[in-house]
Amino acid sequence: MTGYADSADEQAMKTSREKALFADASRLWWSLMDVGGFSYRPDWLGSRLPDQGYFVSDGKHELKLKTVTVEIVYNYLVSVVEKLIDPNLFIGGWIDDDGIVYLDVSFHFDYIYEAVTAGGWANQKAIWDIKNQHAIPL
Q1: CA–CA distance, 40 with 105 (Å, rounded to integer)
Q2: Which of 3, 7, 55, 66 lies 20 to 30 Å from 128, alpha-carbon distance?
Q3: What is the DSSP string of 32-78?
Q4: H or E segment at 13?
Q5: pLDDT digits 0-9 by tens, 78-136
């Protein structure tokens, strides 16, 4: 970067990522509507979603909504994607029993005792058991 303006390559990469985020936002919104939740990490960050362990919201980047649109999901992704430098951070979304939509940045933990402890510190309602695909109330 020159300090004055983004180079053409930097601008093209930014535009490409924004397009990818919008396509992902559409897919994630559908997942919220269809199955009630999602876990996500952009492909360009290079790590895959784990198939076991636990997700716990960090409690700092939580967004609570009564309704959600693709645009809201996209804007949330744009606002937090730069926070995912740590490979153990992911973006999650879910709908609780009262119909409230939560979008958040979540940590991945291998062990339940770590997840429960972190969830307690972050004042969370639940943690997500990845392998068994269900919430564990706290």
Answers
A1: 9
A2: 66
A3: HHHHSEEEE--GGG--PPPSSSEEEE-SSS-EEESS--HHHHHHHHH
A4: helix 8-35
A5: 999 988 888 899 999 999 889 999 999 999 999 999 999 999 999 998 999 999 999 99
Contacts of 42 (CB under 8 A, 6+ apart): 17, 20, 21, 24, 81, 84
DSSP state of 111: S
Note whether residue 92 is domain-resident.
yes
Q: State pLDDT tens for residues 60-80.
A: 999 999 999 999 999 999 999
With respect to residue 133, please indicate whether it lies within any of the assigned structural domains.
yes
List the domain range (segments joined by +) for residue 100: 8-137
Q: How many domains, the chain?
A: 1
Kind and range of the H or E element at 91?
Answer: strand 89-95
Give a yes or no: residue 121 inside a domain.
yes
